[in-house]
Amino acid sequence: MSSNNNNKFCVVVLLVCCAFITATVGVVLKPANSSDDEVWLFAVSDYDNRLEYLDPVTHQIKGYNADIIDAVCDIANKNCELVWDLYSNCWYSRSNERAHGGVGLMAKWYTACTGWVQTYDRLLTFDFTLPFSQKGKVALYAQSGSSQDYSDLSGLKVGFLEMWFSDEACLSRFTTDSSFPIVGADLPSDSQKITYVTAKDLIAAVQNGDVDVAFSARLPQLDAALETISPADFPNICVAGGGSMMTSKANKEFVRWWDDAFSRLVGTSRYDTICQNIVDEHGDIPGYDASDICIGY
Hints:
Elements: H1 3-29, E1 39-44, E2 53-54, E3 61-62, H2 64-76, E4 79-84, E5 91-92, E6 100-101, H3 103-106, E7 112-119, H4 120-123, E8 127-128, E9 138-142, E10 158-161, H5 168-172, E11 193-196, H6 199-208, E12 213-217, H7 220-225, E13 227-228, E14 239-247, H8 252-265, H9 269-280, H10 290-293
Parallel strand pairs: 1-4, 1-7, 10-11, 10-12
Antiparallel strand pairs: 2-3, 5-6, 7-14, 8-14, 9-12, 9-13
Helix pairs in contact: 2-8, 2-9
């Protein structure tokens, strides 16, 4: 066989092999119940409430957020997986540091982070889907029986929860709020701002006098253990929208299909069941019910 014929023969064999490999891989990877081969990864962690928690028996993430992901991905016919990770890898927020995007979402370790409230700072960095939970409320807390005036925080130490939207930037917005102005809400001294990882830690800090007051999203644990010193109609002026999927601004395709599928879910009996299960399936975990969480309730 001539050299030219040898070359032609090798090219033909190579093309046949490539076609075989491509066809075989396509069969192996394509999910039987999905519209495409892509696996959409959603970061979750443990809020320790009904939105998102680690089940101590099954060691699986459960809650309203996980139920929403299951339903939306089913409607959209997408192959979705939950990825356990630290909240700080989605959004980094610590005392006396400017909050910023977490390394996990910035580096695209996953498609999106689950259930993140749309704050004005986060909107500068990331894109969001339509909210699938309400934006919630905020409150100032003190020790039980305290007579502390919520409207003057001058010189006080304030405790916050790490990574939550109710951070020091959120509180500082009340310095210029016309309806509920708070003197000293900008906390000019770094020593006035202390963050805690869990609600349990924050409660203990207030009760032990490590901080004078706590500023946080309204949580049942805090409501039960501490004195709410802010008024009942105290506004949440810190967020532009409720809990959503937080994703890269370049990820328009994901936002499109998620919003379409979620819009088809809301208002259906399936969505009503998910909302009912907040208490029926997840009621042993602290948290609010459907009227405080679900859209349209």
